[in-house]
Write a structure and sequence with these properties.
Elements lengths: L2 H32 L5 H9 L1 H29 L3 H31 L4
């Protein structure tokens, strides 16, 4: 694959994730703003529902992919030592993967209604 194709793929990924992030945030903020005040149990049952859980998991994935492309591009442009760039990319990837797993765990706990 050529560098131009990789750049186009990253550009498209950022645009599509940005659109999903915007639609999700506008939808959630509208529901929260127009609805009754939510208690903790209301939040938990709302996020634990199947549709909201899936859309929130997709939101987390889109957010982390969006962040990955942005950080990767900055590292490619400004960190010229290859070993240092790869080190920073590996650290970033591990942090983002850990964040995704933590978010998915929180959504699973909300769906099952358990704590801890």
């Amino acid at each position: 694959m050529s560098r131009a194709a990789q750049g186009l793929r990253a550009w498209l990924l950022q645009r599509f994730t940005a659109i999903y992030l915007a639609v999700y945030l506008v939808t959630v903020l509208t529901v929260v703003a127009l609805g009754d005040p939510l208690t903790f149990q209301d939040w938990r049952s709302w996020l634990g529902g199947p549709w909201m859980g899936v859309t929130t998991a997709l939101f987390a994935l889109a957010l982390l992919l969006h962040a990955w492309v942005g950080v990767r591009d900055v590292l490619i442009d400004y960190v010229h030592a290859v070993w240092l760039r790869l080190l920073f990319m590996a650290i970033t990837a591990l942090l983002l993967l850990g964040s995704l797993l933590w978010i998915l765990r929180a959504l699973a706990l909300a769906a099952t209604g358990s704590s801890v």
